[in-house]
Amino acid sequence: MTDSVAVALISGGLDSMIAAARAREDGHRLLALSIDYNQRHHVELAAARRIAQTLGAERHVVLPLDLRAFGGSALTAEIDVPKDGVGDDIPVTYVPARNTIFLSLALGWAEAAGARDIYIGVNALDYSGYPDCRPEFILGFEKLAELATKAGVEGEPFHIRAPLQDMTKADIVREGMRLGLDLGMSWSCYDPAPGSLHCGLCDSCRLRAKGFEEAGVPDPTRYATIL
């Protein structure tokens, strides 16, 4: 156990909520960072605010960074979100360099705040194939942080914590239950349906529903379409 501070990236989704809760369980005081990148599923930020408050974050920064200026993704441009199932290729919902950008921002705040631990909810088993969710990326960014910062150069390295890295979605759901979280307060859908419903068909919805089903846990999510 520790009494240090950690920065947790909280998108509003299931994974980031559980990763942030793990930071708290590890004994860290919590600084929560969410990025308002003008994403299609902007509603996730309301979930992020609820999660940060529930987890007792000492401060929650929602940082504006309009990635629609770049586009290149179904989440930041007028490109249809795929609804035909999780494929093998990197989908158009991949936002170019998103986790690199987000971790860089978290790193900046962590160094300013004296934090040396950054928590992110990536996993590389049940996911959409994004390259910036892989263990190699996390290890590479940790090395980058050591090279790129005053703290790292002076022998105070940063640790990028990805506690869900090797979990399936079912494992993640079970972990959320173990931590006593209200999983229904999270938001996963990339293409929200009218009435504040998850669409039920995008990759993120399919993976979420699969996780609850395989975990044997009732799914609190309200879907517009149930497969």
Look at the structure and name the CATH superfamily: HUPs
The largest pleated sheet is described as: 5 strands, parallel
Counting H and I runs of at least 4 residues, what is the number of helices?
A: 7
CATH topology heading: Rossmann fold
Number of distinct beta strands: 5
CATH architecture: 3-Layer(aba) Sandwich
Integer-rounded radius of gyration:
17 Å
- Order of H and E elements: EHEHEHEHHEHH
Supply the helix-strand structural class: alpha/beta
Shape: globular
Helix content percent band: 25-40%
Strand line-up in the sheet with most strands: 3-2-1-4-5
* Poorly predicted ranges: none
Oligomer: single chain
Beta strand %: 5-15%
- What is the averaged pLDDT score? 95
CATH C-level name: Alpha Beta
Distance between the termini: 43 Å
Number of domains: 1
Written overview of the protein:
- The protein is an alpha/beta fold and 227 residues long.
- It has one domain: Rossmann fold.
- The protein contains 7 helices and 5 strands.
- The protein has a 5-stranded parallel β-sheet, sandwiched between helices.
- The mean pLDDT is 95.
What are the main properties of this structure?
single chain, 227 residues, alpha/beta, Rossmann fold, five-stranded parallel β-sheet, 7 helices, ATP binding
